[in-house]
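FIELD: query
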Amino acid sequence: MKPSWTLLVLPGLVALSSFAAEPNWTIIVQPAEVHQGGIAQLRVSADGIAGIKALHGRDEITLFPGEDGSYRAFLGFDLEQRPGPLHVRLRGRSADGKDWSKEATVYVKAKEFPRETISVPPAFDQLDRATLKRIEKEQAELERLWKIHTPRRLWDGRFVAPVPGTISSPFGFRRVINGLARAPHTGVDLKAALGSEVVAANHGRVIFQDDLFFSGNSLVLDHGGGLYTMYYHLSEFRARKDSEVRKGDVIGLAGMTGRVTGPHLHWAARLNGARVDAMELLAIQEGERREATGERQEKESKMH
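FIELD: result
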């Protein structure tokens, strides 16, 4: 007999529960509505279920065991993700060998990112063929990184800011130069004095370290489970490629290498291939997602 399901929707929360005696499981996606470039958490609790898998589109999402017996994962939504419902498929097998599947839905909301229109002399915005070829090669090399999947979770607990400086250029910012819209800003620029220390936002492994045309001295950390953070325009590297670093370890010094006009740190994140706002990581801790404005705490108080 096919089990019946109920869908319970609360502010910032979606829960799906089975009333069937076996299996008994609950899926929570928090928050239930996410802006483009945002991050949500998935938590799966199941009795007598083995081999649980979560799929976001065509990509499998790594689930990590929680202390309460549940399985958890971060879900990333690209800054150009089409607004509307997005489904996460879940599959598993009960102790009696029966397969089951279910979907959890997250609603992606459109976000108005800042935009600037400027005009510059044509010569300033033109690159020669050799430079364009170099840029294309470097971009392809970075894209290959996001296909590397480390199933082992390396990060632990809350993420920390790599520098104490405030934001000078926000995530998603887009320039229109001479009438042509350029690629959106996929990270945040943080104020940082030349030579100031840049630390790892969490535990991870250095999987990339090179001097690139646009981003200069660039370092990428793999935190496991499809989560990566990037640190660009460094003046020096302080961590070796393929080395494992701990949260708060100095991995480089801030600089102005690459195509920039002054010293700062460009900090960015990728989650299961999606370009997400790295600042969202600072608002998340395992099992809980806190809004910086305190909005979530207010919603919870109204629910009780």
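FIELD: remark
The chain has two domains: 5-111, 115-272.
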